[in-house]
Amino acid sequence: MARKAQSDNMLEKMRNQHVQDKVNDRMETGSFPTVRKKPRKDLNRASNKSRLLSSILIALMCALLGFAYMSQINNTKSTYETMDESELVRLLNESNTQISNLVQRKTQLNSQLNSLKSAANEQEQARKIAKQNEETSGLISGRLPAKGQGVTIRIGRGLTTKVDASIMFNLIEELRNAGAEVIAINNVRVITSTYIQDAEEGLIVDGTTIKPTYTVKAIGNPQELSNAVDIAGGVGAQLQVKYGSNVNVQPSDSIIIDEVREATQNQYAKTVE
């Protein structure tokens, strides 16, 4: 009987619990079963804490740097303030000496710069002079072609007497005396050592035989060269009267003498060093 009574009590409790659960689950009651949530970590709070620590560290470092800077300034001021008059005078003299040395060094550098510029100018001037001398030497020796103002003289065959070496040599000398700088006869460049001699037919100039009509080109002042040939009783008149040759002098602003000579080596003459 006792066991049966215990079973009945158990069933009664289960019924009551079932009824209570239905009541709790009803929408009209406005209550629901309570479910406990797990706590979540506050991420925003952690982030704010990290920012706060960073700001504190930055502020602390700035404060330390400012303190160190002010300490340095105070130490410098205190250093000058604690110096006596003699030490300050010594420091001022040392500063003036350093300034004087720097100014002197600047003057030395400027002097060196001017010397370099002067040397460069002298070298450039020497180079120009050397080039000019080389060109002049090349023109005189016949190694270089030439062009410029001058005259072209054409001398025909002598109808009375054969045009000989002596009258042609006189013509060359008259042109030189009138300032001719470069001369050529036919295809032969005339230089300081040029010689002219008679041949059976024509003339021989520096070993080259030339025949009339003779063409003489000379570079110089056209008016003066023309006067040297056409002057009364001069070489032009002699060619016409004595030799019966036709002489024509033509001034020009552009005379080109491209006949050149090989450079000759002096056998006896040497430069003085």
Automatic annotation (TrEMBL):
Disordered: annotated span: 1-22, 27-46
GO CC field: plasma membrane
Domain of life: Bacteria
Listed InterPro entries: DUF881
Keyword entries, A-Z: Coiled coil, Membrane, Transmembrane, Transmembrane helix
Transmembrane segments: 52-70
Biased composition (Basic and acidic residues): 10-22
Residue runs in coiled coils: 92-136
A Pfam short name: DUF881
Family as reported in the entry's similarity comment: Belongs to the UPF0749 family.
Protein name stated in the entry: DUF881 domain-containing protein
Organism of derivation: Bifidobacterium longum subsp. infantis
Organism ancestry: Bacteria, Bacillati, Actinomycetota, Actinomycetes, Bifidobacteriales
